[in-house]
């Protein structure tokens, strides 16, 4: 199935996508997929105005009815899972199973949001005054701006969108300029759901094409009630102060530097499989990819031998081939960053296996690499940085508290895991004195979270939470209501005023 057929199946006219200045290339072979016209500042302004008008109507729709639209969108996703998953692979380079997995994640969050649409509940709180009642109500927030990264071109948007829509918000989505076709395809499927639903205000989902300036426009605009931004820590440092300058709200999902601790009692088979998927899956281009392995000194050599063997067996190649386990890097910049990190790690005493470019003769304009394992003498500056590529730094430890200290001594705080069969070790890692991450796992890897839990991380990862649990609250505003059903007017704290 070629790109034109994929786009046409998803309701996009390939001929309309060839006239603009933004060239979209497939990381699979460097071929041009589309040339899109980026939005001008005026175009973004108009999109925001439409979204704001849509919000004013959508917020009045009962939440369970809003859930019905999300249910219909989930149906469109189910019907188009294969083709949308293929587009995800073509545009982001992840293997087909992971492309389709992303669409499944969208379907799952739609299901979650449909249920949620009947459970947007607040508290009733005891009032200190006689004849009074206090309660909390949750109201739609406004227009939610979503800035998304290339590596999860559809799922992360859906985590935001499904919740925001049932919460009564409108959406303006600025996808990565590397994966805008996925966004246009999602919008086309969403419009199909809207047509079936019937009474959706125009502008409920706007897609804005562009790069950094487009994101800045959203950050600076007061009509964006919440900016949900996913990407690198550098992006968060650039955008968050702009939102803060207008005292707006932001929800940040930034970089990770995730580690797996392997304790002496670990099941080695489980550990090797989990490390391989976490470090090599999606070519190391997940925010939750394992980047550090903190392994007990007694296991270090044997685990490294097993991992090198497992790494050698990874089939690298065309992500559209079902036999492939690892596709390309997103582009040349990612390759250069990987090589620079490996050179720096060597300079810091690291011993590198893998990491070299492969398949260059077949695809001179694409960037395939062997995943790298780097045995490090210490947790150096290079290890403390997130390099968005398949590099796993291996560090040793002797006492668990030393492993936890190493684990926490990086700026990022997204995902973490321990492999152990010792209850005390597992519980210590999960405790207040354990991992400082937003995601802390036992005997599973760092990547591949389920939508039912809140997703996000601490420290430089930005502190935001999306997806399941009570993450929906970020997409609503809370009102505290006090109702006096007595004939008196008692003041709180017993204050007497003019009586
Ligand atoms: P990126 O930061 O380059 O781009 C992300 C988005 O921000 C894009 O839409 C881009 O156009 C925009 N952007 C980039 N720099 C900007 C700037 N200075 N000002 C305004 N907008 C800017 O990230 P990427 O390469 O697309 O994705 C990889 C990064 O995203 C990694 O750091 C990864 O860990 C992170 N990520 C985090 C999560 C999470 O949930 N925590 C999920 C996916 C990816």
From TrEMBL:
Boundaries of every Aldehyde dehydrogenase domain copy: 21-478
Catalytic site positions: 253
DNA-binding found in the keyword field: no
Superkingdom in the source lineage: Bacteria
Keywords: NAD, Oxidoreductase
Enzyme Commission designation: 1.2.1.3
Enzyme class, first EC level, given as a word: oxidoreductase
Gene3D superfamilies for the chain: Aldehyde Dehydrogenase, Chain A, domain 1 (3.40.605.10), Aldehyde Dehydrogenase, Chain A, domain 2 (3.40.309.10)
Pfam families: Aldedh (PF00171)
Quaternary context: Homotetramer.
Family: Belongs to the aldehyde dehydrogenase family.
Listed name of the protein: aldehyde dehydrogenase (NAD(+))
């Amino acid at each position: 199935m070629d790109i034109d057929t994929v786009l046409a199946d998803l309701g996009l006219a390939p001929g309309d996508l060839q006239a603009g200045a933004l060239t979209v290339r497939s990381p699979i072979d460097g071929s041009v997929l589309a040339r899109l016209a980026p939005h001008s500042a005026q175009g973004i302004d108009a999109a925001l105005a439409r979204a704001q008008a849509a919000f004013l109507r959508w917020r009045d729709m009962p939440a369970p009815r809003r859930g019905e639209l999300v249910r219909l969108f989930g149906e469109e996703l189910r019907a188009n899972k294969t083709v949308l998953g293929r587009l995800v692979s073509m545009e982001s380079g992840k293997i087909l199973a992971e492309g389709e997995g992303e669409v499944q994640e969208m379907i799952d969050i739609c299901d979650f949001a449909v249920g949620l649409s009947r459970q947007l509940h607040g508290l009733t709180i005891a009032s200190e005054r006689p004849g009074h009642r206090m309660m909390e109500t949750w109201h739609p927030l406004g227009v939610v701006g979503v800035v998304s990264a290339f590596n999860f071109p559809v799922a992360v948007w859906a985590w935001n969108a499904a919740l925001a829509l049932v919460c009564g918000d409108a959406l303006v989505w600025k996808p990565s300029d590397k994966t805008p076709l996925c966004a246009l395809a999602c919008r086309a499927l969403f419009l199909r759901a809207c047509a079936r639903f019937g009474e959706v205000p125009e502008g409920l989902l706007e897609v804005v094409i562009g790069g950094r300036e487009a994101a800045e426009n959203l950050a600076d605009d007061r009509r964006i009630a919440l900016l949900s931004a996913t990407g690198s820590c550098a992006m968060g440092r650039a955008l968050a102060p702009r939102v803060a300058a207008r005292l707006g709200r932001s929800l940040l999902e930034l970089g990770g530097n995730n580690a797996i601790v392997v304790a002496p009692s670990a099941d080695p088979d489980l550990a090797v499989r989990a490390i391989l998927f976490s470090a090599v899956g999606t070519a190391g281009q997940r925010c939750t990819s394992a980047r550090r392995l903190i392994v007990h000194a007694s296991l270090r050599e044997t685990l490294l031998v097993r991992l090198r063997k497992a790494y050698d067996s990874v089939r690298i190649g065309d992500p559209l081939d079902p036999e492939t386990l690892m596709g390309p890097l997103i582009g040349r910049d990612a390759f250069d960053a990987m090589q620079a990190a490996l050179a720096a790690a060597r300079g810091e005493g690291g011993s590198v296996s893998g990491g070299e470019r492969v398949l260059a003769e077949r695809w001179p304009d694409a960037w395939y690499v062997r995943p790298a394992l780097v045995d490090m003498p210490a947790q150096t500056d290079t290890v403390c940085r997130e390099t968005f590529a398949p590099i796993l730094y291996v560090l040793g430890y002797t006492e668990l508290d030393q492993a936890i200290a190493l684990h926490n001594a990086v700026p990022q705080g997204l995902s973490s895991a321990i492999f152990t069969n010792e209850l005390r070790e597992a519980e210590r890692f999960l405790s207040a004195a354990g991992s400082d991450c937003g995601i802390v796992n036992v005997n599973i890897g760092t990547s591949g979270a389920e939508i039912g839990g809140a997703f996000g991380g601490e420290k430089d990862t930005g502190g935001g939470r999306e997806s399941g649990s009570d993450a929906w609250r970020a997409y609503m505003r809370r009102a505290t209501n006090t109702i006096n059903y007595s004939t008196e007017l008692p003041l709180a704290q017993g204050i007497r005023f003019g009586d």
